[in-house]
Amino acid sequence: MDLSERPWLRNYAPDVPATIPTSEESLVDLLREAADRFSSHDALDFYGTTTSYADLADQVRRAAEALRRLGVGRGDRVALVLPNCPQHVVAFYAVLRLGAVVVEHNPLYTEQELTHQLADHGARVAVVWDRMAPLVLRTAGATAVETVLAVDLSRALPRLKRWALRLPLPAARATRAAMTAPAPGALSWERQVAAAGPLAADHPAPGPDDTALLQYTGGTTGTPKGAILTHRNLRANAAQGRAWVPGLRDGAETVYAVLPLFHAYGLTLCLTFSVSIGATLVLFPRFDVDQTLAAVRRRPPTFLPAVPPIYEKLATAARERGVDLSSARYAISGAMALPPATVRLWESVTGGLLVEGYGMTETSPVALGNPVSPARRPGTVGVPFPSTEIRIVDPEEPTRDRAPGERGELLIRGPQVFTGYWRRPEETAAVLLPDGWLRTGDIVVIDDDGFVTVVDRIKELIITGGFNVYPSEVEEALRRVPGVLDAAAVGMPCAGGGEEVVAAVVLHRDCTTDEAGIRTACRTHLTGYKVPRRVVVVTDLPRSQIGKVLRREVRDRLLAG
Question: How do the domains of the chain map onto residue ranges?
Fold first, then answer.
């Protein structure tokens, strides 16, 4: 196939352009444009508390000034360790307004996981959920963090809900404890922002090629590292997403943020894409079926980005409870394979379209998608986005293209492709070729119409529930368990699609720790979703001639029983 012909263009939905114009403005301008066009429109909805675009822009200016007073300047990294909440959105754009760099972190990380990343990027200021503030403060000495700003989630709740949290009732105490906690040694985010005036209008703003975000990922090697994404990268991907769904109405959509904003997928679809269309972003600190369906009754969604398990749970519960989901005209699934059965269930309940896309942190993150039209093909990850080129090549010789129908490694080039890994030139050179092509590490097949199907992964990354799990992290935690001599972590298929973390371990002959004990010990060092769902005891692990554990062979043996 002559890739210059771009056969996939004939399968684009009507009115989707082949290319998008290149913007010379930053993400800061994206918010300014939305505030100018939709000033009185609700930008955020958090359990019924709403924030207009005008108010959001004002809060961002004040938060930027508060951060400036704390010494944050151009190029400085600022760590965000927050669940989905209005303060997260404000902090994100405030950091960018100063020309500083956002670094997103999972607020459920262990101290060990956070320490590694904080030490790597060297942020001096961290904006943190107050329940996590003591943990971040404990990293002092091992990291460059000097100032921790603690965010109280309950301050963003409606007044009546805040009042209810003060009631001397067990349920109120439990809810309050889940949302907020004392943070001795940290500054109050709310007080710092309230005490600051707006940032001076003439304060230097970032340019399109300035770094906006460091997003940690395992890339193709499994070692967590910061992917450098510029304002141009992220703004281009928001524009590509907007072009991909021509039926969207600027200023009239409601986007549900059930995906975490600290994840590359949730960040782009909710923090930048939604602002680019002047949508109302309904924020959920975590996905909960009951809370989501309650929000549907109050403010129905029109666009819902998520992962397959969320669609399955929502559609099933809505059908059982008689909740109307017909407002959800568009849904885009990513981060893991989308089973055709899930597509059928969702579309039968909503009457809308559910399509699958493909991406990675290094592509901001979306690079391919199924057309939002009857031309979509469930089971594939679709075709390249506007202004995106792809090649299918020999993994051993990436200059040699593979023909349609032949397996090969997927290469991507476009305005959304990152500029490299933070302070890791060798790893950057391994995946980012001199002519701009990104090696994805995924083995795919392309058909004559340009539709791509992922068939295997060169990288040994495990994707569970849409989150990346790096085998080396899991194995390190397993080896710390007394009695565990060696371990290998792999991704195994689970019911409903996707993968679960499974560990094969070699035990000392005198070890008395059982599977439950090993899993419990892992929780000291690993976030919940990284803890192996199953632990299988084996007598040995397959190794290469140089002694490296062959994870692929481990997986094959486990599959064979």
Answer: 51-206, 462-559
**CATH of 51-206 among 3.40.1010.20, 3.40.50.980, 3.30.70.3040, 3.40.50.170:** 3.40.50.980
Token pair listed for 133: 């503030």
The bridge status of strand 484-493 relative to strand 499-507 is antiparallel
99: left (phi over 0), alpha (psi -120 to 50) or beta: left
Alpha-helical (H) ranges within 149-229 are 159-165, 170-179, 189-195
**pTM for this structure?**
0.88
In sequence order, which residues have a C-beta less than 8 Å from that of residue 556 and are 6 or more positions away? Answer: none
pLDDT tens sequence across 429-457: 999 998 999 999 998 999 999 999 988 77
439: enclosing H helix or E strand: strand 438-446
- In words, the CATH class of domain 462-559 is alpha beta
Q: Which residues contact 460 (CB under 8 A, 6 or more apart)?
A: 222, 471, 490, 551, 552
Please, which residues bridge with residue 81 across strands?
A: 105, 128
The string of pLDDT tens digits covering residues 154-190 is 888 877 777 766 767 677 677 777 777 889 999 999 9
Q: E strands, 447-509, where?
A: 452-457, 462-464, 467-469, 484-493, 499-507
